[in-house]
Write a structure and sequence with these properties.
There is one protein chain. It is built from 10 helices and 11 strands. It has 275 residues and is an alpha/beta fold. It has a single domain, classed as P-loop containing nucleotide triphosphate hydrolases (Rossmann fold, 3-Layer(aba) Sandwich), CATH 3.40.50. Strand 2 and strand 3 form a beta hairpin.
């Protein structure tokens, strides 16, 4: 079992960005203050694909997602076992700085969180500043990221307006653009549409389909229709009983999990018989 708290921030960074964005979890278990919340989860998240994590509330989907870019260790008392590999490199290896991992494996949260004191343009470049790089002279990057996030046409004439002046759906796409500015190989998304209206949700889903052309996407969603619409692969999480750790019951192509899963519990969940 690997202790994750108090990781030194001075660990030198290594190059994990040179290859494809293939992310693999092998036998991952996770704990909070000694209580096991996930049991030996293994999952391949292939480059150029969208992998959806589905399952009832409280079964460990978001916990697993946060472990994929070392956010799990930010919680006091958090521990993890097993390994998580990005292009064959263990992201929990002592030679890799957490900040380097998080620049290669970005995160978009459930609630949009643009920086309120920054303009739209400054929000896009915030990741560069946080990693110690200059944000000057990056107008082309701002446009590129906003285009990839499906937001450019809506904000190109108001880049100096505050990020909080945007609608909820626009704010979420701004957060996606901010994550893209540091050129991640993988983008993690924790229920990114749960607080959005149907129109904004559709735009975000179309953005995800475009992003998967060059970014590996892993998304947590409770919306079974959304999982079917946007994902290539699915992993179904559940707990056996109250207080037991979450597990991956089944994973594979989305079409198969929704039409002919191997485990009857998967069919019961995706057809709404429970959860």
């Amino acid at each position: 079992m690997t202790q994750l708290i108090n990781t030194p921030s001075s660990v030198p960074a290594v190059n994990v960005s040179a290859s494809t964005g293939f992310l693999e979890a092998v036998g991952v278990s996770q704990w909070f203050s000694g209580r096991k919340v996930l049991e030996r989860c293994s999952l391949r998240m292939e480059p150029g694909q969208v992998t959806a994590l589905i399952g009832p509330s409280g079964c460990g989907k978001s916990t697993f997602l946060r472990g994929l870019n070392r956010m799990h260790e930010m919680v006091p008392g958090a521990e993890i076992g097993g390994s998580i590999m990005l292009d064959g490199v263990d992201i929990y290896g002592t030679e890799i700085a957490p900040s380097d991992v998080r620049s290669r494996i970005g995160m978009v949260f459930q609630k949009p969180n643009p920086f309120p004191a920054m303009s739209i343009s400054e929000n896009v470049l915030a990741g560069l500043m946080l990693t110690g790089r200059s944000a000057r002279g990056h107008a082309d990057l701002v446009e590129e990221c906003l285009r990839r996030a499906g937001l450019w046409d809506e904000v190109k004439d108001r880049l100096n307006d505050g990020g909080m002046s945007l609608s909820g759906g626009q704010q979420q796409r701004l957060c996606i653009a901010r994550s893209l500015a540091v050129k991640p190989k993988v983008l993690l998304m924790d229920e990114p549409c749960s607080a959005l209206d149907p129109i904004s949700t559709r735009v975000i889903e179309e953005t995800i389909k475009v992003l998967r052309e060059d970014v590996t996407v892993v998304i947590v969603t409770h919306n079974m229709q959304q999982a079917q619409r946007v994902s290539d692969e699915c992993a179904f999480f559940m707990i056996e009983s109250m207080g037991s750790p979450g597990r991956i019951v089944e994973s594979g192509p989305t079409e198969k999990l929704f039409s002919a899963p191997d485990d009857p519990r998967t069919m019961d969940y995706v057809t709404g018989r429970f959860g």
